[in-house]
């Protein structure tokens, strides 16, 4: 994914609008890993959805927070192949309220195709890598759990009406993933 100056500027605008913060750069200190599924059952189509700098017309329901496109740090394909698609310490727009403290992992699928055991194993390896690299990481959550943080000091979204309902990746996937990380909190 290309991180042009324009995408960096759009990210800064998103931070200002959503978090009321003026920032010089879009660097984050990771504290949370958020697990997602793309809802798209194809790697190329998933990447093509994340790659543009601005939101596509079909995402108008989240446009009120800015036209910065959604993004994530990693994509994990059905066979467990992990793709790093942006710098790990750049802010990605992937979870309301927690973007400035989280790394996002998108798993291909979740539409007609379920997530695979290969993806689970890849997520275990990836979370282990991130946990070892960034000692600041304390939490591991599924996207569907982000609202649990609304009163937490890491939750920064200023618009109380800007919330979406999420079910990804699935409770079962997260339960299986968490078995490998008893020291990472879910809230």
TrEMBL record:
Pfam families: Amidase_2
Any one Gene Ontology molecular-function term assigned to this protein's record: N-acetylmuramoyl-L-alanine amidase activity
Catalytic activity: Hydrolyzes the link between N-acetylmuramoyl residues and L-amino acid residues in certain cell-wall glycopeptides
This protein's record includes keyword Cell wall biogenesis/degradation: yes
Domain of life according to the entry: Bacteria
Listed GO biological process terms: cell wall organization; peptidoglycan catabolic process; peptidoglycan turnover
EC nos: 3.5.1.28
Annotated CDD domains: PGRP
Keywords per UniProt: Cell wall biogenesis/degradation, Hydrolase
Residue ranges of every copy of the N-acetylmuramoyl-L-alanine amidase domain listed in the record: 30-145
Xref: PANTHER family: N-ACETYLMURAMOYL-L-ALANINE AMIDASE AMID (PTHR30417)
Protein name: N-acetylmuramoyl-L-alanine amidase
Record organism: Arcobacter cloacae
């Amino acid at each position: 994914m290309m991180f042009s100056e324009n995408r960096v500027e759009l990210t800064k605008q998103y931070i200002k609008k959503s978090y009321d913060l003026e920032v010089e750069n879009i660097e984050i200190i990771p504290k949370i890993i958020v697990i997602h599924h793309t809802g798209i059952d194809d790697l190329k189509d998933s990447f093509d959805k994340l790659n543009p700098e601005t939101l596509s017309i079909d995402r108008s329901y989240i446009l009120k927070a800015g036209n910065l496109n959604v993004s994530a740090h990693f994509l994990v394909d059905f066979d467990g192949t992990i793709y790093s698609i942006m710098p790990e310490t750049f802010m990605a727009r992937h979870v309301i309220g927690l973007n400035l403290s989280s790394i996002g992992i998108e798993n291909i699928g979740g539409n007609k195709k379920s997530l695979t055991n290969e993806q689970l194993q890849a997520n275990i390896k990836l979370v282990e890598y991130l946990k070892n690299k960034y000692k600041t990481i304390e939490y591991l959550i599924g996207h569907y759990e982000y609202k649990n943080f609304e009163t937490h000091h890491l939750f920064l979204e200023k618009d109380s009406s800007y919330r979406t309902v999420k079910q990804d990746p699935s409770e079962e996937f997260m339960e299986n993933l968490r078995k490998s990380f008893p020291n990472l909190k879910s809230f």
